[in-house]
Design brief:
45% of the residues are buried. The two termini are 24 Å apart. By secondary structure, the chain is an alpha/beta fold. It has a ten-stranded mixed beta sheet with strand order 3-2-1-4-5-12-11-6-7-10, sandwiched between helices. The chain has a two-stranded antiparallel sheet with strand order 8-9. The protein has two domains: 136 residues, HUPs (Rossmann fold), CATH 3.40.50; 136 residues, HUPs (Rossmann fold, 3-Layer(aba) Sandwich), CATH 3.40.50. Helix 7 packs parallel to helix 8. It is elongated, with a radius of gyration of 21 Å. It is built from eight helices and twelve strands. The longest helix is centred in the first third of the chain and has 26 residues.
Length: 297
């Protein structure tokens, strides 16, 4: 494996069209940030073999490695055709997808994956791999969804006041500044639930009072970032309803949708339940998942 360049944007490559699109999205992000791009293919050699019937394990390993090298080369050529001056490195790694990608995330600024794929990257954010990366990854994870990347739409971020959503807000402000676009900050609320717990006497609550309190809360959370980055236009959206539906609506014209890996209230378990499934399955734009202990680099 080639030495890892500190701070690179890493893209997972598996030969699928989705992965190639993710590589191009990652390349655009790397160019925007002035960082190198690292293309990584992870393959696992089957342990079972039948001597005299199937090729030796070493023969199979070489075949997997060569195939990965071809996919990496194809992705690299596509990237350089658009960005000839971009620094691009690649690596084919024999390991399991989760530990390999977690290790890659240690030095990466961002880890970008396709929404559909082959081999080790199949269903990357649909099952146990996604949960593992959400718990153990060390950098923002982006699922490059959407047929074509939008460069003019706003960045949309979901926030509930938790540490995870605070990190997502910081990342979203930086992305909006780098893209030269606006930022839409979304806060949802429920008349029945308050930060995941059932409200006492929820049948008697005043919706206007709850919405006013949530708006005040999100304004206070956003205020320090507005002072730090006054050139970023900010729009606040405070709505009653399900987080996934509201975020998908807000993200329909967005260039990027940003969420924290975990939160409270409507965003509790963002990568562990139906909300995350809805976002990565139906979002019309890339989705970035941010951990609170992974500051923007």
């Amino acid at each position: 494996m080639r030495p890892v360049t500190e701070g690179a944007i890493v893209a997972g490559i598996d030969g699928s069209g989705s992965a190639r699109a993710a590589a191009m999205w990652a390349a655009t992000e790397a160019r925007r940030r002035g960082l190198p791009l690292r293309l990584v293919h992870v393959y696992t050699v089957p342990a079972a073999s039948m001597p005299g019937v199937t090729p030796s394990r070493e023969t199979v390993r070489v075949g997997f490695e060569n195939r990965g090298a071809e996919w990496l080369s194809e992705a690299r050529e596509e990237v350089l055709a658009r960005y000839p001056d971009l620094a691009v490195e690649s690596a084919a790694r024999e390991w399991s997808a989760v530990p390999a990608l977690v290790q890659e995330s240690l030095a990466a600024t961002m880890l970008v994956l396709g929404s559909r794929g082959l081999g080790g990257f199949t269903g990357m954010l649909v099952g146990s791999t996604a949960v593992a990366l959400a718990h153990h990854g060390h950098c923002p994870i982006v699922v490059a969804r959407g047929e074509q990347a939008r460069e003019t739409g706003p960045v949309v971020v979901g926030t509930d006041g938790s540490p995870s959503s605070a990190a997502a807000l910081a990342f979203a402000f930086d992305e909006a500044r780098l893209r030269g676009t606006g930022l839409t900050v979304v806060r949802t609320w429920s008349g029945m639930l308050d930060h995941g717990a059932i409200r006492p006497h929820f049948l008697d609550v005043d919706p206007a009072e709850i919405e006013a309190a949530e708006r005040k809360s999100v304004e206070e959370q956003v205020a320090p970032w507005r002072e730090k980055q006054p050139d970023v236009p900010v729009r606040l959206v405070v709505r009653r309803g399900r987080p996934a539906r509201i975020l998908l609506d807000a993200g329909s014209e967005a260039s990027l949708l940003v969420v924290g890996s975990r939160g409270r209230g409507g965003f509790e378990g963002m990568l562990l339940g139906s909300t995350s499934q809805a976002l990565v399955t139906h979002s019309e734009c890339p989705v970035a998942v941010i951990r609170p202990e992974s500051p923007t680099r």
